[in-house]
Amino acid sequence: MSRVDYGQGAVESRRGPSVRPDAATYTLDLGSHSVKLYEQQGESFRLVRTATWEILDAEISADQLGEFLQRFLNGVPDLESVTALATAAFRRRPNLGETLATACQFLGISVSIIDQESEADLMRRALARESVLASLDAINVGGGSIQVTSPTGLTHLLPFGIADLNRRFGLSKGPSEREVTACREFVAGQLPDWLGEFAYTGGERTYLESFGVPLQGIWCLADDFEIFAARMERWSNHDLESRSPYDARWMSGAIASNSIVIACLQRSGVHRFAPVDLNIAHGNS
């Protein structure tokens, strides 16, 4: 049996027999904004698929969640080879955590609802494995929380994420209704004063490459990013969805994410950052 923890409570989620050592294993990253499936076989670790689900505000039954996960995991030969990591949405809503545990138990998936400290540790571990990134601070942004870490062990946790910023500053509304400047100022005021050159995680490199933003090796220059962000702020929601490098709904967080990057650049005073496709799953591999 494996434990599923959130807050002060815990429920049990069934785990079947051990997977063969030479078989592929899978990590299911259940974020508040999106869900991602990674496959590991030997030294290979790759993203299989991703989907936006915005589970933070969803009302969903265990049967519905189980059906979604079963469809999303289509092609995985053995569901007992899947380990799920669930984050802010399931921490905030214990009933949703119970629903997830029930769905995963039915499917035979091992699941853990991890706290922000664990998310930060996994992200720090993921960067430490990449020599060109190991000296950088990291910004890991989700739908319901943000973790800021340093390679020296400093951690700064923020109890809000993209979904919260969208609601508070109208960032998913039309261009004229978006309070982008206020959002940037708010986020900058919540960041630690020790923030220096940083990596911004979670598919950011693929995102910028898909829009042709100039990159210099691992770096994106602040000036280039600000030009890109300013252009995107004028796009309608239809424009955002139609140009998504992932699924259409993924772009519902684009304005908020861009605002966080600029807030980090302003707070740190640096002139570049490293967009990376690393995720907490890479730290768990």
UniProtKB/TrEMBL annotation:
<feature type="region of interest" description="Disordered">
    <location>
        <begin position="1"/>
        <end position="22"/>
    </location>
</feature>
<dbReference type="InterPro" id="IPR043129">
    <property type="entry name" value="ATPase_NBD"/>
</dbReference>
<dbReference type="InterPro" id="IPR003695">
    <property type="entry name" value="Ppx_GppA_N"/>
</dbReference>
<dbReference type="Pfam" id="PF02541">
    <property type="entry name" value="Ppx-GppA"/>
</dbReference>
<protein>
    <recommendedName>
        <fullName>Ppx/GppA phosphatase N-terminal domain-containing protein</fullName>
    </recommendedName>
</protein>
<feature type="domain" description="Ppx/GppA phosphatase N-terminal">
    <location>
        <begin position="79"/>
        <end position="202"/>
    </location>
</feature>
